[in-house]
Amino acid sequence: MSTLRLILADQLSHDLASLKDCELDNDWLLMVEVREEANYVKHHKKKIAFLFSAMRHFANELTGKGHQLVYTKYDGKDNKGSLFGEVKRLCEQKNIDKIILTHPGEYRVLVEMQSWQEKLNIAVEIRQDDRFLASLEEFASWAQGRKQLRMEFFYREMRKAWHFLMDGDKPVGDKWNFDSANRKALPKEMSPPQPTKFETDAITQEVLELVAKEFDDHFGQLENFHFAVTREQALVVLDEFISQRLVNFGDYQDAMVQGQPWMYHSHISFYLNCGLLTPKEVIEQAENAYRNGDAPLNAVEGFIRQVLGWREYVRGLYWLKMPDYKNENFLEATRSLPKFFWDANTKMNCLHQCIKETSENAYAHHIQRLMILGNFALLAGLHPDEVNEWYLIVYADAYEWVEMPNVTGMILFADGGLLASKPYAASGSYINKMSNYCKSCHYKVKDKNGSQACPFNYLYWDFLDRNKEKLGNNPRLGMPYRTLNKMTDEKRQIIQRDSQIFLQTLDTYEKV
Ligand code: FAD
Ligand code: DLZ
Ligand code: SF4
Predict the structure, then answer these.
(1) For 264, phi and psi rounded to 5 degrees?
(2) What InterPro entries does the record point to (predicted)?
(3) Residue 181: predicted pLDDT
(4) Are residues 348 and 491 in the same domain?
(5) Residue 202 included in any domain
(6) Are 226 and 194 in contact (CB under 8 A)?
(7) Residue 285 contacts residue 243 (beta carbons within 8 Å)
């Protein structure tokens, strides 16, 4: 009798919970490329290529360590097309009396796994995913009894619990948060370094050909694939971030520059989320850079907050609130996703640039996802289901546990303020301050109304006006609502008229 241990595409870690206590000669490891997972949303071509290549490399490492492993390729002749189908097939072929799994990253996969014991009549053990720094129980106990689940307070607890960036029981620098120093636009003379790129090897080449053939109708470009596909390569990306970019990460964290999709960000979310890097090692390296005098505190604290704070927090929130979280739509948004989210064919230059780069790279940095794409989705009242699906498709780091709280909670305020204390809504002047997109735009960022005016300008006020009943009492929106209330009726009507014309044109799929 032996044990089957299934390893999912985002579980590529040698010290994975379900690999602990594995008996080399007795147990069977299973990794599968399946139609169900690759098509339940039509993932970006680069995302599929990245995961399949990283899976194949990881499988080779495991067999190199002496494991017995069955690997099902996507175009394998007997591929059953689903996780369950492949697990069942192996159970029938080998003498399996137990299945060991690591907790998956998506609720639908967990529900599926929980049905296997009964369906197969074989014992199934689902182990906690201990690659995260907060267990689901720890998050739930932090959340219990709190009216508001603010990330900032969770993050402080995590700093203390793990003793990251602490001097005794005090935060280094005597402050928990250095965000106020992290909102600079990029000076013209500065040019961020190129991202770390890798040549494709024979394994990746084979996967690229497979993806070109099988996923031709999926979003995004496959050309210029340069992601890391092994832990060794992912460590190089991390090293280069720490030595070349971290120093400027804080200052320019919110900056956007046309033609610079990578900026001073780390580009490690792909690797953290699929298991090639661990959050602990990433945080330790960043802290060491500060302690060695190689990076300033605002950069290091800002970076650690993303990984130790936001990343752990959104995971805890997702599992605490699922499955209801999926149906949240506090602002009752109903509009369909505009076609330009797929083809970048819009006269709004900020959106055009961010969608084009997303298509090319399966990546956009945080402030593009939040303040350009997300801000537009919020102001235009796009339906949470469609926005969630789009974000899950287009980014190579997207799994529901991290994508959904960022979309439903952070950008759409669809959870009514569970995650964010106010909607991240902004007019064109914010975008103009933090980027150079407006300089080459068809629309005029300084114009507030009329056919030439930046649509973000009137949509911003129209959004507040439309949602006054639900947002008017939010203490953090006091200022804009006071300004709105002081506007003349005529001004408000002009805002409404411009917004209606714009949104109706959007609905007809005409170019805006
Ligand atoms: P950096 O800017 O260098 O940040 C360092 C790390 O911090 C990231 O690698 C990531 O692991 C973590 N991090 C930063 N912000 C967040 C956050 N808000 N939530 C969780 N982790 C965070 N991140 C994903 O990993 N997958 C997603 O599907 C995803 N969808 C998003 C959707 C929206 C609408 C928004 C606003 C943000 C989303 N993010 C997502 C968070 C963030 O944008 C990405 O983690 C980041 O852009 C990845 O690039 P980077 O590795 O260069 O990050
Ligand atoms: C995203 C994805 C894709 C594209 N393909 C596979 C696959 O073929 N096999 C697999 O095990 N996982 C895949 N995944 C990831 C899953 O859909 C799912 O998001 C995570 O495993 C949840 O933890
Ligand atoms: Fe975007 Fe408005 Fe600036 Fe154009 S003018 S780039 S639409 S913010």
Answers:
(1) -105, 25
(2) Crypto/Photolyase_FAD-like_sf, PhrB-like, Rossmann-like_a/b/a_fold, UV-DNA_repair_photolyase
(3) 81
(4) yes
(5) yes
(6) no
(7) no
Would you say the CB of residue 349 lies under 6 angstroms from ligand 3?
yes
Distance between Cα 498 and ligand 1 center (Å):
34
Residue 333 lies in a domain: no
Q: What is the CA radius of gyration of the chain?
A: 24
Q: At CA 305, angle to CA 145 and CA 285, rounded to 5?
A: 135
Q: Which residue has the tokens 């680069």?
A: 46
For the Cβ of 437 lying below 6 angstroms from any atom of ligand 3, the answer is yes
Average pLDDT value over all residues in the chain:
97
Q: Are residues 170 and 219 in the same domain?
A: yes
Average pLDDT of the residues in 172-184: 91
Helix, strand, coil percentages in the chain from 3-state DSSP, rounded to 5: 55, 5, 40
Q: Which domain holds residue 74?
A: 2-127
Choose which residue among 46, 351, 382, 402 to substitute to test ligand 1 binding: the one with the highest number of ligand atoms within 8 A of its C-beta. Answer: 402
Please determine, for residue 62, whether its predicted confidence score (pLDDT) is greater than 90.
yes
The set of protein residues with a Cβ atom below 6 angstroms from ligand 2 is 8-10, 32-34, 37-38, 43, 48, 51, 104-106, 109, 399
* Domain boundary, last residue among 321, 350, 366: 321
Q: 102 pairs with which residues across the strands? A: 127
CB atoms < 10 A from the CB of 14, how many?
Answer: 11
How far is residue 51's CA from residue 69's CA, in Å, rounded to a whole number? 18
Ligand 1 and 305: CB distance under 6 A: no
pLDDT of residue 443: 98
pLDDT of residue 509: 80
Q: Does 258 reside within a domain?
A: yes
CB 369 within 8 A of CB 404: no
Q: How far is the CA of 79 from the centre of ligand 1 (A)?
A: 33
Write the pLDDT tens digit of every residue in 139-176.
999 999 998 899 999 999 999 999 999 999 999 999 99
C-beta atoms surrounding 201 within 10 Å: 12
What mean pLDDT comes out for the span 350-372?
Answer: 98
Q: Quick one: how far is CA 474 from the chain centroid?
A: 27
Nearest CA to ligand 1 atom 28: 398
**Spacing, Cα 370 to ligand 3 middle (Å):** 15
Please check the confidence at residue 183 and state whether its pLDDT lies above 90: no
Instruction: Kindly state if the Cβ of 388 falls inside 6 Å of ligand 1.
Output: no
Atom 6 in ligand 2: which residue has the minimum CA distance? 37
Neighbours of 456 (CB within 10 A): 28
Choice from 8, 113, 402 to test ligand 2 binding pocket (greatest atom count within 8 A of CB): 8
